[in-house]
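Subject line: Sequence and fold of a protein, written as structure tokens
Body of memo: The sequence and its backbone structure tokens, given next.
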Amino acid sequence: MIVSLLYKATRKLSSVPGVLLGRDTAKEAELLVLRHQNAVLRRQIVGPVRYEPADRFWLATLSSLIPRCRWPEIFPVTPGTLLAWHRRIIAAKWDHNAQRTRTGRPPTEAAH
């Protein structure tokens, strides 16, 4: 729940400069995406690139500032991947497996 609240707040705050500054915000967001990609690649020199939850959060937030027609040129992942990450976050939010303590019928009074 905290992650989704933080995500929503970050998206709202990141959209304010887009309205105020216009096209320059998209260029700045593109630069931030490229810088973040470099940081991820520096962190993982050997093996395939693995994005941590914070990386996914950052890329999803910046995606709202960049026009969708520019996504294939800028983002290291496809829009479908971003949407899949979002679906997993939402599914994990509403999955209440940790709250379930036992399965089946609860014990009756006579069983005590």
Remarks:
- The first helix runs from residue 2 to 21.
- The CA atoms of residues 41 and 47 lie 10 Å apart.
